[in-house]
Write a structure and sequence with these properties.
Blueprint (H helix, E strand, L loop, with lengths): L4 H4 L7 H9 L4 E5 L5 H8 L3 E6 L2 H14 L4 E5 L11 E7 L10 H10 L1 E12 L19 H5 L4 E11 L5 E10 L3
Parallel strand pairs: 1-2, 1-4, 2-3, 4-5
Antiparallel strand pairs: 5-7, 6-7
């Protein structure tokens, strides 16, 4: 059973797609890309995943490191890392990238996704949730990057799409926008 460390430390709840993925993915080495203060990392660690949590915000990483230290969590390593580098350097069984891509440099997105795919072990998973901007639903938020219709599924051609949709959703601040949501399994 998981303890709700997120509410104890004033963090947002674990992303619902991470909770769903945690029900089907066996604990393994995982990467939380754009972890912020660690809401998803803390949850995954309690499920038994060994989590590398990366974000380019040193203050967010410092806060997560304080929580890890206070609660004595041995299976989270938090570090400052600019995802635009697209040089993960280590292979993972699960890479989660929820509401992160839209904050990256648009010219680096293809490299970031290619690096995620390359660094996923055979049979491993990628979870991506990213804002979209389409003709029917132009994005109301000025993110540096948004996906176009079908762009994410095309990038994962050849992978098994466990879940894929491009539904309209609500951000934590109440803004309505379209998201691409994908859980994909790399061929074994």
């Amino acid at each position: 059973m998981t303890v709700d460390l997120n509410s104890r430390y004033g963090l947002s709840p674990t992303h619902s797609e991470v909770v769903e993925a945690g029900k089907i993915i066996e604990p393994c080495n995982a990467l939380d890309m754009g972890c912020s203060n660690g809401r998803n990392s803390l949850y995954l660690s309690q499920l038994g995943f060994n989590v590398i949590a990366v974000d380019n915000n040193p203050n967010a990483i410092e806060m997560l490191q304080q929580i890890v230290s206070e609660v004595e969590i041995a299976n989270i390593k938090a570090q400052v890392y600019d995802l635009n580098n697209a040089e993960l350097g280590v292979d993972y069984g699960f890479i989660a990238c929820t509401v992160t891509l839209m904050f990256l440099d648009p010219v680096r997105i293809d490299a970031v996704i290619a690096d995620m795919q390359e660094r996923t072990l055979p049979g491993g998973y990628n979870l991506i949730v990213c804002a979209m901007s389409t003709e029917d639903h132009p994005c109301p938020v000025r993110f540096p990057f948004t996906l176009k219709a079908g762009q994410l599924s095309e990038a994962y051609e050849g992978w098994e799409l466990i879940k894929y949709n491009e539904d309209v959703g609500t951000m934590h601040n109440g803004a309505q926008l379209q998201f691409a949501t994908m859980l994909a399994r790399k061929p074994g």
